Structure formats: C-alpha cells, structure tokens
Amino acid sequence: MLILNPYFDIEDDVVPWLLKCRLTPLDENDLSTRPSRKELQVVNVEKNGSVLYTWKGMKGTTCIGAYDPHNKQNKLLYVFDKEVPVISCSVNMEKTLLAVSFLQFTRRDLPFETLRPVSRCLTLLLEIHPVNSTKVLKAVDSHVRVQFVYPTSDAKPFPENHLLVISEDGCIEHILIPVVIEEGYRATVHNPDRLHKDIVVEDILWAQWDTQGQRLFYIAEKEENNALLMCIQFYPDRNYEKLLSFPLGFSLTVTKLWLINFGYNSFQQQENSLELLNLHVFTNRAGTMSVCYSHPVQNLGEFTYSVILLHYGWKKTFIVSLEESDHYLTSKPTFINIGYYVAVYMPGYFLHLINTQHPNLACHSLFLSGKDAKVSPWNQQHHILSLSDLLLDYQFGKMYKADLDPKLLMSFMHDNKLDCHQLAAMHCAVLYLQNNSETEAQIIHWMCGLPVSGSIDLIQEFICGTLYKKAISEAKIVDKLLPYSSLVNWDGEIPGVTCRTEIISLSVFKDTIQNLKGFWAELNRNVEFVTNLECFHNPWHNNSSRRIKARLYSEMKVDEKANQHYRNILENAKTILSKVDTCSSEQKAVPLFQDEDGHQMVLIGLMVEKLKEYLMKYLQHIGKKKIDVIVNNYAVNLLECTWQIIDKIWKKYNLNAHILCLANREKVNSAELVVFRMMARVLEAAEGLVLPLPPGYHTVHITLGARCLPLYTLLHYIDLGVLHPTERFVTKLFEELDNSEMNERFKFSIGTRIPEIIGQKICHLWDHPVSSSCFARIHVKTLLTELYTHQKSRDFSIKEQAPFESEFLPLTCLTRVLTEVEEQALNRLEESKNVDAKFVEEIALKQTLTFLGLENK
To answer: Could you count the other beta carbons within 10 Å of the beta carbon of residue 818?
Structure first.
C-alpha cells in the first residue's frame, strides 16, 4: 500500500560527482574500487533538505559534503587532513559554519568497529566560508551530537547562529554564535572565545528533533511512574520557549539516551532493542500532534502499540493478532509520518495507516495484513531509520519519502469485500490523493458494480469526502465544521485488531499556547473544536431540516408572494444555480440543469440558509461576506459533484441525451437499466443526507425509467416516491407519444399520478376525460376556496379545516355529475363543452351550503 519514493541515493547522486571531480582515490574506470558503504555515510539532513555525508578522500583524508536535492548539486564543505570517524555534523543555512563531532584515537591501525564509547570525542565549530579558524566546543569521553537551528525559509540570514549540542549524559546545550561579514564575503565568528552558552535541558532519556518545525521534544521523568513529554519551540527572531508539558501516563524503563532525528551515527554501538524507547512524535501544519510508541512484547501471538492524539484528546491502543510469518518478530515497529496518516509497519505482519485528522471512527483507518501489508521497496527492517518525514536506509545509503501508492490503494479497494476496508480505502483515495479525474472515475465505476446491500452508503461517503476536500482547499478554517463523512457512529469490528480508546486531558494546551501563530495556533484551534461535539455532525442532517423541507414543499402550492421565507429560499437557490458551470454542458453526456425543479430549488435554498446559520455561529470573526462565499461554493460543488457522478456513469455505458426519447421505447438496451439503478442509488444517498440534486435530475431519471421498466414497475416506483413525474417529463410524454391504445393507457396511468400543480399546467395538452376532470377540480376548488374565505370573514362557526380538503371534495352529487360527464367525453372538446360551468357552480354551492347548515340563512 505504501511506496518509498527515492529522495537521495548516495550511489547515484554523489559517487559520479566524486569521480568527476577526482575527490576520491578510486579509479573511475575500475568499478571494483568504487566506494563502499563504510567509506560513504549519510550523517544528517537539514531543514532545507540538504543531505550531509562523509567519505574517504585523497591521501587518507576525511571529507564532508552536502547534496542539495532541489538543484541536484553537490558541494564540498570541509576536508580533514586525516582520517576521522565523524559522529555528527550540521551546517548553518548560509553554509558558512560547520559543527562536527568525531572520535579521536591514537593508534592509526585501530579499526573503527572496535572503538568503544569511552573513546575521546571532540566537537568543533569550523568556519568554512572561507575555511578559516577552528573553535573547540567540547571534548568529552562520550558521543556528542550537533544541530544548527534553522530560521524559517523566508527569513533573512541570521545575524547570529544557534547551535544545539547534545551529550550522551542527557544534557542539551544552546550556543549563540554571532557572525560578522568581512570584506563583503568572509563570514567569521565574532569573539569566538566568549560564545554565550546555556543549558536547555538536562537529565533526559529521550529526545527528538523536529526538523521542519524546529522543535525539540524530550522526556523527563519528574513524577513517579509518569514520564513527561515536553516541547521547546525555537524561533528565528528570538531564542526558544517551552510550550508543552504533557504526562504520558507511563514510566521509563530505559537507561540509555535515545535520540531521534539528530542524524545517524554509524559508530554508535547498536543497543539491545528491548532497552530502547521506541517513541516518535509527529506533527503537521494542520495542527495535529501524534505520539506513537510500541509496548514491550509479552505474547508472541499479539503486538501492542499506542497512538496519543494530543490534538484530539484521545489515546488509542491497538492490540494486533499476529499470524504466523517467516519474518523475525521485533519489539520495535517503524512509525512513518505521511501527513494525513501515521503508518505503523511491522514487516511480514501488518501495516496500519492510522487516520490522525479524523480518528473518531476506526473505519476511516486502514488495517492491512498478509500480502497487502507491504512497503516497496523495503529492505531488512533494522536497516531503516525514520527521520521526520524521511526514511534512511543506512546500509545502502538511500533515503526515501513514504507515500501512498494509488494503484495498490485502488486495487485493495476493488478486491476487498469488507465494508470497513472498502470505506477506509475510498476515504483515503478521496481525501489524501491529489485531484485526479481518472482516480475519481475509477471510484465511481467501482461503486456502480457494488451490491446495494451494506451497512455503509459509499456514494454518500464519496460525496461528503469530495465536498470536504474542496472546501478545506478553499478555506481551511472550516475543516472541523463541515462533514467529511456521512457516518455519525460505527460499531463494526476490524478483523485481527482490537482498539481501546481513552480520554486524555487537554488543559495543558489551553494554558500554554495562547496568542501564538502557525502550528501552535492550529493545534489550539483543534483542541477548542474537540470540546464541542456538534462540530463533528452534519449541520443540516437532522429532523429539523426535514420538517422545514416538508413545510416548504407545502408552501409551494401557495403564491410565493405570500411568504417572505419561501421567497428568500428561492433567491438563495437562484444565486447558486447562476454560479454552476453550465458552460461545459456540451461536454456532458447527461442533460441536467435544463428545466426548473421546484422541489430541488427549495432544497438548494434551504441547505444554503441552514449552512450559513451554522457557520455564523462559529465563524463570526471572518465576516458574513466570507461565509457567503464559502457556503455558495460548497453548494455549487455539491451540484457539480452529483453531475460528475452521473456523467461518468453515462459515459461508461456510452449513453447520451439522444436516448431520452419516449417514442422509441422498444429500442432499449441493458445499459440503460444499469444507469437507471445507479441514478436511483444516488437519489437515495442525496435524500438520506437531505441534500439537493441538480434540477432536471428527476426528469432524466423518470425518463430512463419510462424507457426501461415495465409499466407496473414504473407506477410502483412513482407510488413509492422513488420516481417523480416532473412537468418536463409529462410534457414529453404527451407530445412524443401518439394516441395508440397502448400509449393512451400509458399516459392515463401517469396522468392520474401527477401532482395537481403540474396537472393544472399541462392538462390542455391531452384530449382525454382526465383533462376534463382536471378542469372541473380546478374550477370547483377555486369556488369553494372563495366561499370559505367569504364565510370566515363573516365569523361563521365552521370547522377549522378547509372545506376543499379531500373529505369535502368531491361531494356525492358532484362526483356523480362529473363521472357522467367523463363517460360521455370521446374527443377533445372546448372547455365550455366539456363542463357546464354554470351547472357545476350551482351544484357545488348547493351541496356546500347544505353541509355547512347555511341553506336557510
């Protein structure tokens, strides 16, 4: 599922340059003399991506070089006139200063492998632009790491440099190095004998350097059985500040200092993995902070690890049942940061992609095992180190960036039958992968072939995920306010994985990271949103919206001028429809947005209104205009997303607008039925979320149904409310079908089921008794409505319900008269001949007065 994209290969990116510049004693024509892995070592990676490496130079020298991955160029930084085993090195941003720590030995013939940690370590500060003086920073009997603090990428060069010096005794020092420029180009250290030093922290057993964020994480056990995770933030314009102190809830059992992301020390003795604390902290710009650590192996049949989501207030512990494997089970899986997920990889056993931004539902994380749990290419696990967002294979001198493999992801999504795996894979593809129309088409085609059964509506998930991704790309501030999933809860099981969730305290953030910018501001915002669970629900997916929708549907029968709210709803809808990109409609296979649909207009306007109210509740500070833009774009994207789904389905089965002809219903192929069923599933998904469909959707859908369904099935779908006879469809029905006996029966069956408001508009198109009945109903209803209004104005005591409801109409006598009229109608007649308006008026008035007891008044 994961693929390692090459970032740096010392064999390809460095060796050709060394041979070309004759910086090595090797023979360019003799491949057997090419540098070995012991002679070429990656030492460190700086914030700007520069890779620092060492090699054995001419005449027994040791050289330090830097590779710039942006311009793919190498640069020689410094040459020692003798062979020295470099432990650690770091270069400042301007590449004018180099800090190096290395081992010293007195016997030149002593192999490096036999050197013990008690060997004397020397730490130097070197001026390298140009090469000038040398300053000894530390001379001790244990290994020392060095790391320059980098300013932000857009900041001006430091007038002073900041260097961290990390000793194995658990002490981290901060050294301030002022720099002066002489003769316009010579960078020298000002007053090197009086450099300011201070101790950042001491007595620590674990530390990690966040290269990109320039943060120092460390653990100090100041309380009994409760290790504290702390963080110090370094700034480009001032020194540093401690911003985090979080209790991890367990005690440290290690005795050796374990350093993460402080480069790679090839001369460090490899400690027993059981004694090392396998813990990583991962952050990203979205304001997430995840602490991942593995538990000691107590049972060979299972493995346990935990992920603390500090931005979410949860600690999730996963117990994994291990299947038999040829691989050796280690106690230390590799944790990999790939932005949206944290990958937990145990080669030969499992690969888990834990969703760190939406961790509340386990079905949004991927849990892979067996043949699916592979990372390509991956060598022996103990040769891979996780360095921030990079992976270092120190045996072969290669570096990688881990990323999801779209092909493997799509293959897993297609082949797997479990709902949880299907959802997790699709959620990952929609939200994590870059915008790719081909990938979206593959997902839509895959959903077409899935059975209707299942506990998860994947079409709803696709719509929600697509809208969420587009919304946060336009306005990231809404990432916690808009739904990324249609699921509110999920109680399914993940095969082979047990998850336990614990609530952790978030009070530590509220007191320490206020009024800050960047990552810490985002982290604080995430924590604040977590405290309000309403933020994680669909803002319009509730019973209130359904009730308002039903009321607005009823108000459609009333003159819109009589209801200001209804007019506002329609104005919202018109605004959205004016922004939909219909310019490319010629490239679309399915003809939507070509007729008015009152119901969808109501839904569009209602969604816009409710979403604006919802966002105003939380985002008043960004202003009404900004919220209007966010909501309008969201509604437009929704309509275009639905259009896209249907259009790709039509194109898959080679359908076009020409098939929407009712006159040739006998020329129907099986593809039309497949597309009809898929459109029914999209309709069900939209109605389940109370979301609008593009105007014209119901017309296209019922037209397909009229072509490919038997009449009794079509009528059954209409009666169930799956299909909706629209004015455009009924007009096509009357205009395109001739007056054959079969077509008359077909039109009659549909005509008796059309809504009254549509019947009033199209009844004149059909020369059938049904049209006469429609005229009579309209005329009588108008008279009785006027009578009811007149009687009510005179304060007569009558029933509260309107006299023109079904139990008042038709009255017994009126029913008999209309039935007789309809039986006598054979051909299309003028309205005055079909119905005796005067007679109907008299009968209706007489029967109504009798019913109301007003006949003698």
So the answer is: 20
Give the range among 154-163, 422-431, 506-515, 724-733 with minimum mean pLDDT. 506-515
Last residue of a domain, one of 766, 788, 820: 766
CA 493 to CA 226: how far, in whole Å?
32
Q: Give the angle 551-555-558 at the CA atoms, nearest 5°.
A: 165
Print the domain residue range for 671: 543-766
C-alpha span between 408 and 1 (Å, rounded): 5
Instruction: Give the strand pairing for 2-9 and 375-376.
Output: parallel
Burial class (CB in 10 A: 0-12, 13-18, 19+), 582: middle
Cis peptide before 69 (omega within 30 of 0): no
Q: Radius of gyration (Cα) for the chain, nearest Å?
A: 37
State the distance between the two ends of the chain, measured CA to CA, in whole angstroms. 86
> Residue with structure tokens 């990676």?
45
> Model confidence at 702, in pLDDT bands (50, 70, 90)?
very high
Give the residue among 796, 785, 794 at the shortest CA–CA distance from 845: 785
Please, which residues have CB within 8 angstroms of residue 63's CB and are 6 or more apart in sequence?
23, 54, 55, 56, 57, 76, 78, 79, 80
Residues 628 and 707 in one domain: yes
The count of C-alpha atoms lying within 13 angstroms of the C-alpha of 671, restricted to the half-sphere facing its C-beta, is 10
- Give, for 7, the enclosing helix (H) or strand (E): strand 2-9
The encoded tokens of residue 397 equal 């001198």
3-class DSSP state for residue 419?
Answer: helix
Q: Would the CA dihedral through 105, 107, 112, 113 be positive or negative?
A: negative
Query: CA angle at residue 48 from 43 to 53, to 5 degrees?
Result: 20
Question: CA-CA distances (angstroms) from residue 747 to 264, 697, 725, 750, 776?
Answer: 80, 21, 12, 5, 19
Q: Is residue 494 part of a domain?
A: no
How far is the C-alpha of 628 from the C-alpha of 651, rounded, in Å? Answer: 34
Domain end: 766, 789, 811, which one?
Answer: 766
Same domain, 608 and 700: yes
Structure-token pair, residue 284: 């990203």
Q: What angle do CA 76, 82, 85 make, to 5 degrees?
A: 80
Of the chain, the percentage scoring pLDDT greater than 70 comes to 76
Give Cα separations from 768 to 49, 437, 745, 809, 828 (angstroms). 80, 50, 11, 22, 7
Per-residue pLDDT of 686-695, as tens digits, reads 988 888 999 9
Q: Give the up-direction half-sphere exposure of residue 56: CA atoms within 13 A in the CB hemisphere.
A: 13
Q: In what order do the strands lie in the sheet with 334-337?
A: 334-337, 341-346, 350-355, 366-369
Residues 845 and 733 in one domain: no
Q: What is the pLDDT of residue 452?
A: 73
Q: Are residues 698 and 621 in the same domain?
A: yes
**Nearest-CA neighbor of 737 among 771, 700, 703, 769?**
703
- pTM (2 d.p.): 0.82
Residue type, 723: L
3-state secondary structure 380-416: CHHHEEEECCEEEECCCCEEEEEEECHHHHHHHHHHC
Both 557 and 689 in a single domain? yes
Dist. CA 743–CA 767, nearest whole Å: 13
Whether 34 shows a pLDDT value over 90: the answer reads no
Q: Select from 290, 232, 231, 279 the least CA-distant residue to 257.
A: 279
Other Cβ atoms less than 10 A from the Cβ of 501: the count is 12
pLDDT-derived band at 809, boundaries 50, 70, 90: very low
Question: If phi over 0 gives left and psi between -120 and 50 gives alpha, with beta otherwise, what is residue 397?
Answer: left
Whether the pLDDT of residue 803 is over 50: the answer is: no
| HEC readout, 458-486 | HHHHHHHHHHHHHHHHHCHHHCCCCCCCC
